[in-house]
Structure formats: structure tokens, C-alpha cells
Amino acid sequence: MGSRVEILNDGGFRSDGRRQYELRDLTIDLSQQGVADGSAIITHGLTQVLVSVFGPREAKMRSQTMHDRANINVEVSVAAFSTGERRKRSRGDKRILEMAATIKSTFEPVVQTSLYPRSQIDVFVQVLQQDGGLLQACINGTTLALANAGIPLLDFVCAVTGGVHSTSPMLDLTLLEENDIPHVTVAVMPKTGKVTLVTMETRLHVERFEEIFRLACEAGKVIHAEIKGAVRERTGRLVAAMGSGPRAGGGDLQDDDAMDG
Amino acid sequence: MVDITIRKRPRTEAVVTQRKFFKKTARGKVIKVLRERYLRDDVGCGIQNCTSCENSTAYTLPFTGDTQHKSFPNGHFLLPDTNVFLSQMDLMESSLFKPPIILLQTVMEEVRHRSIPLYNRLKALVRMDDKRVWVFYNEYRSETAIIREDNESPNDRNDRGIRKATEWYNSHIQFTRPIIRGQPKPKIPNVVLMTEDAANRKKAEESGIAATSIRKYISSLPETVAAQLLDLLSAADGNDIEPTRATSGRQAMYPEYFTESILQAGISAGKLHKGHFTTSTYNYLQGSVSVPGFPKPVLLIGREHLNRAVHGDMVVIEIFDEAKWGVEGDEVVDQEATLKNDDAADSDEDEENDDVLRQEAKAVRASEAMAQQKEKQPTGRVVGIIKRNWRPVVCHIDATALPSSGPPTSSSASTLSTQTLLAHPTSTLLPRIRIRTRQGPALVNKKILVAIDAWNSTSRYPDGHFVRVLGEVGGEDAEREGLMLEFGISYGAFGSAILSCLPPEGDSWVVPPKGDDDGVWKGREDLRDLTICSIDPPACQDIDDALHARPLPNGNIEAGVHIADVSNFVHADTPMDTEAAARGTTVYLVDKRIDMLPALLGTNLCSLRPNVERLAFSAIWELTSEAKIVNVRFTKSVIRSKAAFTYEEAQLRKDDPKRQDELTIAIRLLNTLAQKLKAARMAAGALNLASPEVKIHLDSAESSDPIDVEQKEMRETNSLVEEFMLLANISVAQKIWEAFPATAVLRRHLPPPRTNFDKLKDILNKRKGMTLDVSSSGALAESLDQCVDANEPAFNTLVRIMATRCMLSAEYFCSGSVGRDTFGHYGLASPIYTHFTSPIRRYADVLAHRQLAAAIGYSPLHASLHSKPHVERILEVVNRRHRMAQMAGRASVEYYVGLALKGRGEKERQGQVTEEAFVIRTFRNGLGVFVSKLGIEGLVMFKRDLTQFDADNYTVTIPGSSTAVSGDDDVTISVFDKVVVNIEVEKDKNTQKGKVKMTLVHPIDSRAL
């Protein structure tokens, strides 16, 4: 084996000091970014993603307009400095397009698009830093940004990566672990327990799969609690700001938020 | 459901928790790597009954520490640094050395980084029952985690981390045992840092940490223990062992190695080459390294050019200009003879052993002189070592080396001062090793185990240290143990964890009655009524295969091979499975079998004994009368073998026309099929290879004194069993490869490179006028059949043996890791092959069983067998074990042939045995001969000056003027000539090492030469 790092050592620790079922540090920043209608910066360990949502608004191109519902348009861009090796990815990169398509299809059944016929919701995902679990960060970030933009969702979508080292399952893999062991990304809607996405690029045995799948669903609920807490806090602060007397006008609010981060 | 949590990492900790470094890729690109780590407070200290760490039941360190040591009356724990493990692993492993040890993660990782074998030993040490070792993950504990500072080398960082952890431990112990008023003051055990680095010790003492060197620590242990442990100390820690000798005055005997960066640059620029170093079997001053760019291995001649390389090392060599190329020496240089009088103590003082140098130089010059005549071979010298292949070596001590050779008494042994001795390895490929010991006289006539520690450029011999005594020289137990150690065979008894995996009923286990559907009968076919029998060598206890055959109504024949269902008892991921995987194979020595599985399974529950119901894994074919496969199926089954034959019994039964019972008819049926199968295989180009196999007759089971040696006989029934096993293996290989294309456990035999045969072709052509076509296995088989000498029936076998030696060895592999076009088995001419038929004695078969069981849907496949790296890793071990087991078996036979010769010689006349032999190699001063009757190879040495040597025609001519020749005519001996040799076992008086010595009797008497 090429890697000289032990994925899981005899003491039950992973290479970064976590145990099998421990997720990485999760920070969420919901403050206003630029002119976006809703935005979120989410950090899973050393993976950081900025998601900005615009809309619902009139579709720029007529061809994309649908008469019964809104169109979700997802664009992903990966910053050249996000990986250790500086590498510029073009927008036409197949992997990036695929990721965008995955995010789109994950959210289509969740966003209540039929409320906004003939309009478009733009989701721009910017990857700032990568260390494994990229898709999970993108999905969690998109959920937050959509919620922040006030777009009605049926439920939160929470994604987690699960992998298996020999026979021991583990959650929320770093890049190092993703390179070495088979892994699955699962996105769940915690309230209903429905799964909107399962994706896997490596080979994994059927029996292992079930175990990891269940585990990832369970972990989705933990993420959910965290995300919900962040949204609640943000909303609470907005409500408090609205009620606090004479200060009117949005400008102040924005300043407030900027300071939060 | 498990507890899933998010580990929070405060922003303020980022300095400690994030690590940034730059890494250079193989292509030379520099990339930045950012890693994070999560610091925690729940990393256990490992001390029993610790009040502040949770879950302290699993902890291994005693509450009071170790109170035996004189310097630490309050008790202590030992905390060794990395170098202690790197250089003194033998000491740490000794059963006499047992203070409680705290092993830091920093140390573990550093050891892992430096040497994987040592790391594995370290891991085994942690698991050892009688050791008290606790691994403390200091890098993950918030109080002990540190980061590298600017201008700090990684080593300094680690040292600081180790000191910090020691400090933490001390305060942790103090904190958890507060002084309670009214109670006696609790004894606070000390955590002692053990390091050989004086600067580190000083720093530690400055910050109030107790620190000690290894030597100091051991010296104040109780006396009896200390003396023995001091011998185990590796010589690598150098300086303070020989304070009296001025090291600076010594002259360098070898050129220094290049630095690592020069080596790496040289290799990537193609100026230097790396490869495995092999010492020549015939000449200890000569070695070779196979390098990809050259058709022939690169030759290294002379001590200086070998430059401290030891057999098996991975070395870097520089190749000389073509003008300086030499040829392989054509004479035999024996280390024992050349260096007889070299004394260990002063072998470094150059003036005293001039004659050693002179002799060696002469040997080297002789081959240089030859260089003009013969085709030159690339020649070079060693300039660096990438990886040492230093394992413990079985040695003995030369009695003459001791100053006082009086009879050793037990009392003098312990009081004697340190002596420097040369230990002589049993293997001629290794150099002698200098050791220092206090037990000198007690070690004479003993087989001892010695570890090599270092080889400085100022020292002729490598330095090593004594590990332990194996037993008396010549004692069978010591010889056997030495042999097993030499080949790395683990021969310990099975541990209790392993034995607890056996069925609880023990040997009263039986197949439960049919009808309970949930038990072993589930999914099994009932084949108890079939007429099944097994055919094995005599006295075979682990019967793992049985056969049956019966005609079918449609005119075809049903044939079945039934293999012991080991995987029913050995489940994946159990201690027994892990042990079996580590052992890899059962090792057969002449007088002992070292089992892969506990004997209860191997010789009883799995063994397909007659008239007992046993679980089996069956492969059943429908064959046409022409032995073409119509279809095949695999099933788990229950069988009841009707009889267990030996090859001989089966043969007699088959040949006896009066016998017309069911069993005999089945054997005949099988035999006709086997002959057709064999014919088909041969037509496809399978090779009929030969290896010198002999059988040792032992006197009785108890004394195991060998009486005689004979060659193994091959009967028709041997080939019968073999053909069906091959058929089963091929069918199974096909099936599991279809089911698991990425991870199937298969076996292959790569076709040998053509150049391997060059020499043999040349000899055959020149001496016998025969040609060898090596273009394919079929062509080779055909041309081997042509190599017949009408007068000499054994000649063909000899050529086959020599051809076999030119080939590569077969190996297990994981189907996903090599290309499909390299699956083939060259020797068997089969496109795909595996091992399925001997799961009791080979681990690869157990894996194949599991995969086949999954392929037929009998049981799910264990997750580990889906993982390619996992299968690759296991097979790598199994391959190595397999090779080692073969070599050990051969060495054991050799040893017993020696004993048998001695026995026979004593019976006949004056300890001598005379046998016919073939010449297989000629040297300037000797002949390599092969005694086919005994299956041994030997050397006949001449005094050089009398003979004429023709290297091109492989002949040696002894002039008629010599006294050895009876007539006046010159006598010429060449390769393939038949000679008569006198074989005797000579015991070296000093070393007590039995050595087979051969002398020519016919056509000349070489004793006069």
C-alpha cells in the first residue's frame, strides 16, 4: 500500500485523532454575502464551501422557462487554491458539471418549485478549500443558503460521507481517507427519513453497504440538529432586529450580520 | 445504534491543530498539504485504577509501577524513546525484561517510518501477554500534543514531544494521588525516560524528569538478570562499549557510502542502479545484483567493491566503464578456509592480518586475469544501501577463538569479562559477525542466535549482538530450531485465543444427524452413499482430498473430488484465521511437521478419514469417456470415505485382476480418466519437470535417527491423484475468477526469460550436441524429451532438474492486481490456476474455499476478501511463507542426508560412502557435482595449479604427469560427465559443524591433487 498513514490504528483513532463515528468540526456562517438573496459558508473540518442563492427570479433564457414550476440552476466553481496543488479547473470540467447535476437532482424534489412557475432559482457553489467530503459540504451548504433565501423547502437535506476500512465503518472522511477506502455519500431528509441522494464512485460490497448506509442516515440527523440550530439562531436574530424599535431600514441589519461572522 | 458526535475544534486552537507542510511528488512537483487533528481529553493513561481516566478496566499498567529496580524505590514506569526500539528490540522482547512500559504514539510512528519489520515486532510486543505495555496516543491528547517550531528538526520535535509526555505523566500521577490528611503519604511512582541520547537526557533532567540510559538502567537490575540482558544489547549504540579503544586512529577499510541525496539523484539520472544483492554460493568475495537495464546481473568482485553489502540487501551500485569489466570467477573461494586465523579482537588492526588481505587479493586477481579471455560481464561496486535485510542469524562460535579453552564451568561463565568473538553463520552467504559477550566459554559448541547491528567502514566484519542460545551443535532440536529461525518459520504452540476458536466438543465432534436444517446440513448435499476413497502417502494424517467416480446412464462418467471443508471451522477474522494467515502454510521437515492449523482440525475434524462422516467441499464433473468436461458443479457436502489407501496399496489393488469390487473399479475408472487428462495436458504443452526428491527413512518415531535415503518413487496412482487435483484447481480458478474478477485468489507461473536458459543451452550444445528450444513451454517440453542419452537413463532427469532451476517460481496473486494476459501457469500450460485442494496445509486454499462458497451462493463472502489491498497483503505473506517453507524443507532434508551418510559410512568402511555423480559445473579449481541417488549437490576441490581449465568448453583437464592420474594420458572432465565420488561427513574440530565433503574417486583420485 502506497500510503504510509494508518487509516485506523489499534487504539481506535483515525489519522486526525477522531474515532470512527466522530464527525469533523462543523461551522456555519449565514451572514449576507454580496447581493445574493441567501448565502451560507459551511466548513467541515478543512473543507469549506460558499453557496449563494439568487431567486426565484425571472429566467434569463426563455428556453429554460417552465410553465408549471421554477427551474433550479446549479453552477459549481472550484477555486484554484482550494487544493494543495494549484490547479485551475475550467467550467466545462466533466467532474464539476457532474457535481452540479448531482446537487440539482438532489434538491429538485425538495424545493417547492411549483410555487414559482416560469422562474429560476440560481445556486452558485464556490469551493474554497477541499479536504474530502466535498459533495456533502456542497449539499449542506445549499440547504442552508436556500433556507436563508427564504425559498420554501419540504425539509432540510443533510449529507454525510461514510466509508469502510476493512470491516470498520467510519464517517465524514478526509481526503486522505477518501483516497484509500471505499465511501458513499448519502443525503437524507431527516424529518421524513427519506433519502434524496446516494452516490458512490468506489466499489463496495452489498453487505457493507447497508451498514454504512444506515450509519450515514443516522449521522444525517446529527448534522440536521446542527444546521437547524444555526438557522434558528439566525432567524431569531433577524426577528429580534425587526422588533427592536425605531431602527428601521435594511442597511443596519446588513451591518449587524456582517459583524456576526 | 452507535453514538455519533461532532468533534468541535475551537478556532483558537488552530495553531496546534492544523499542520501545514510541503511535499514533493514523485514527479518533482511541490505541493502544499494541510492536515488537521483533533485534540481530546479522553486518551487513557493506561494506569490501572486511575481516578481521572475513564474506563480504566482495560488498562495494563500496574498502579504502583515496577518496584523491583534499585534506583527507583517508589516504583517506576519506563518510557523509552524511538532509538531504544530501533536498536535494542531484542532487549525489549526478552522475557527477562519486564518493567511496565509506556509506548508513545510519537515513538510508534517514528519506528514505523524507519522500519516496517521493526514496527511489526513492536506491535507484536504490545500484544504479548507477559509484557505490560501501554500505547499512549500523546499526539491526540490536548495536554501533550506539540507542534514543530521554527528551526526545529523533526527529531528535536519528537524528542521534545516525548519529554513533554513524560512530564505530563508525572504530573498526572501526582494529581490523581493527592495527599490526604491523616493517611500516610502515597508512594508516587516515577515515569522514567529511557534514551541513549545524552543531550536529550540532559534536557530532561533540567526540566526535572528522571532519565536513564539503557546500560545504566540494566546494570542496576538484579545481578543475574543484568548479566544476561547486557549481552542482548546491540552493538549499534557504539561509543561507550569500547571506551579504551581509540576509534579515530582506525583506518577505513571500506569506502564510505554516498549520501542519500546523491544516491537518489544518481538513480533518477540513470548513473546509479539499485537492486537486490546476492552473494555467490561459491565465492564469498563475489556477488551480483540484477539490474533492469542489463541482460546479465552486474558482478561485484572483491571485499572493497562489495562494500559491506550483505546477502539480500537492497543496494545501490555504480557500474564501471566497460574497460574495467570482469568475468565471474571460476574458482571456489571458501570463507572458512581463507579466513581461518583471523581473530575477532584485532581484525581491525591492519598490520596483523596482512596475509588475510594477501590471500583475498590473490583470489580477486585470479579472476581479473581471466577477464581477458572470456566474455565480460558488467561489473561495478556498491555505493550505498537502501535497505538492509538483516534478520537474526543462526551462528556458532569457533572454539579456538577463545583465549582460554579450558572446560567452561558455570561459575566462570558469569564472572568472565567481556570478550570479542566472531560468530560464524550457518549459511555460507553471510559474513561472520563480531559479537561481544560475557558468556564466551559457555557458548562454545552451541548454536546461537545473533543479530547484526551495524557495519562501520572501519571494521572488516559487521558488529552484532548475541540474542540467545538454541542448543548444542549437532543436537537435533537445536538444528531444527536453528533451521526454523533461519527461514522465519513461527513454530510456537497455538495460543489460548486460537484454541478457543475450535469447536467446544473437541475430538468428540461429529457431523450432527441429518434433519436439523439450520446447522451444518443447510445447503449441503448428502454424498454419504458414494463410494469415495482417499489416496495419500503412507502415514498421512491430514487427509484433505478424496475421490470418487461412477459411470452415468448416458455413457458419460461422473467424477468427484472432495476436499476437507476447512472453511466451515476456520472463519474469517478470528484469531485462528489470523494465525493461519500469518503461518501461511504447514511446514514439513523430515522429522517434524509445523502445522498451520491446530492439530485437532488438521488431523482429525477436517481430515477425511475413512468410515467417518466428514464435511467436504466437492467438485463434481460430468466427463465423457475421452475425459472432456461436459459440465462441472461445486457443492458443500457430507461424505463418508470408504477407505484410505496409500499410493502403493491403491496401485496393487488396481493391478490385481482378481479384485472386482466397487472401490477397485472406481480406481480403475479414475485411472483411465487421469491418463487421458494427462495426455491432453501434455499435448497442450505442460512441462514434466523434475526436482531431486529423496525420502528419508527414519529408524523409529522416537529416536528419529535416519537410516537410509532413497529416491521417491512415482507410481501411476500418484499421477492419478495429481491429475484430478489439477482439474479441480483449474475448474475452481475459473469459477472464482468469474465471480470475483477483482479479488480472486489465483496462482500463476510466469514464463521464464529466454536468457535464463542461455548457459544450459550452450553446455548442452557443446557437450552433447543437443539443442533446447525454449520458445514456449510446449517446445521446451518436447526438446527436453529429446535430451536422452541411451547409455544413461538418469541423464534426462538431470537435464530436467537443471532446466527447472532456470525457471521462475510460481506465485499466488490477486486477480485484480495484474493484467489478464499474465494469469497463465507456464509449467502446467493452463490459462488459469489456483490452489483449492489442500486447505488444511495451505492458507491460499482456505481463501479459495471462501470465495468458491460465496460464488455458489452458499455463504456470503467476508468483507476483507472484497478488498484488493487486503488480499494482496495476505498473498504477499503467503508467498513468502511458501518459499521459506520450501527452503526449510530442503535444508532439513539436506541435514538428514548428512546424518544418514554418516550413519551409513560408519557401518561400511571408515566413514565413507561412494556414489556415482554427475558433473554439473566446472571451476578452475574444482567441480560441482550432483549425486542423484542422494539428491545432494557437492563440491570437489582441487589444488589449483595442476589443472587446465577451459571455460568455453566447460572442461577441466588434469595432466598425465600428475600423481593423481594412473596412466600417462591427460584426463579431461567436463560437464555432464559421470564420475564417482567419495562422500564423507567431516566435522570441523573447532566449530563442530558437520560438513559434507566430496572427493573424486573415478576417473581420477582427487585426494592426491
From TrEMBL, chain A:
InterPro entries in the record: ExoRNase_PH_dom1 (IPR001247), ExoRNase_PH_dom2 (IPR015847), ExoRNase_PH_dom2_sf (IPR036345), PNPase/RNase_PH_dom_sf (IPR027408), Ribosomal_Su5_D2-typ_SF (IPR020568), RNase_PH (IPR050080)
Subcellular location: Cytoplasm; Nucleus, Nucleolus
Exoribonuclease phosphorolytic domain ranges (all copies): 22-152, 155-219
TM region(s), chain numbering: none
Recorded family membership: Belongs to the RNase PH family.
GO-annotated molecular function: RNA binding
Subunit note: Component of the RNA exosome complex. Specifically part of the catalytically inactive RNA exosome core complex (Exo-9) which may associate with the catalytic subunits RRP6 and DIS3 in cytoplasmic- and nuclear-specific RNA exosome complex forms. Exo-9 is formed by a hexameric base ring of RNase PH domain-containing subunits and a cap ring consisting of CSL4, RRP4 and RRP40.
Coiled coil location: none
Record protein name field: Ribosomal RNA-processing protein 41
Pfam families in the record: RNase_PH, RNase_PH_C
Record's keyword terms, sorted: Cytoplasm, Exosome, Ribonucleoprotein, Ribosomal protein
Region spans: Disordered: 241-261
Gene Ontology BP annotations: nuclear mRNA surveillance; poly(A)-dependent snoRNA 3'-end processing; rRNA catabolic process; U4 snRNA 3'-end processing
Signal sequence coordinates: none
GO cellular component: cytoplasmic exosome (RNase complex); nuclear exosome (RNase complex); nucleolus; ribosome
TrEMBL record, chain B:
Compositionally biased intervals (Acidic residues): 344-354
Pfam families xref list: OB_Dis3 (PF17849), PIN_4 (PF13638), RNB (PF00773), Rrp44_CSD1 (PF17216), Rrp44_S1 (PF17215)
Residue segments, region Disordered: 334-356
Keyword flag RNA-binding: yes
GO molecular function: 3'-5'-RNA exonuclease activity; endonuclease activity; enzyme binding; RNA binding
Family the entry assigns: Belongs to the RNR ribonuclease family.
Record's protein name: Ribosomal RNA-processing protein 44
